[in-house]
Amino acid sequence: MIEIAISNDFSAAGVTVALGCISCRVTVEKTQEALRTALDAEEARRLESLGGRPASEVPEIAAARRAYRALGKDPARYRVSSEALMRRLIRGQGIYRINTVVDTNNLVSLRCGHSIGAFRVDALSPPILFRKAMAGETYEAIGRGPMNLENLPVFSDCEGAFGSPTSDSERSMITLDTENLLMAIIAFGDDPDLPRHVDFAAESLGAYCAARDIETAIVRQTGH
Fold it and tell me: Distance (Å, rounded) from C-alpha 180 to C-alpha 85?
């Protein structure tokens, strides 16, 4: 497993967070019929569970929004990706199909309610730290262009920030030639089901992305 830690920035702000990590080798394809079927079913299940309520009331999303406010970032302007996914469902727009790893990422996010990062390991320079971004930090976010990272929770390596619960960077984005994957479930608040979510993610990567050499870990704040 790639070396990853959580900064004390979060505990200093009164924020509890844990990371459910899955490291593996994958085969990325443009699409896969069984995965499309699973995503369709998960979208329907999540819509039913929402019962007309806004995505912001999903407990995992509400916890992430509280964390953003505690860190000094507006969660309505910089929505966590799990909330953005569910808002698309509620508006009847469906979820984009990108490739089998990104689609599996979205499947797991819909199931567990947490935002999830999926990173191309070969683009990273470990060790990795999950921390609060500093003033002036930016990166090219996937589909968004330059993004102001200040006060966002971010994943960073020796080269700087490369991912956040709002949008990951183009540097670490998953492409069809990606072979080594790090997936991180970002669980704000206390979620006793995080180990189960990690297991589901690992199983899904095996089923839809031919994942092998799978390693899993739950990274917690020091003292937790």
Answer: 25
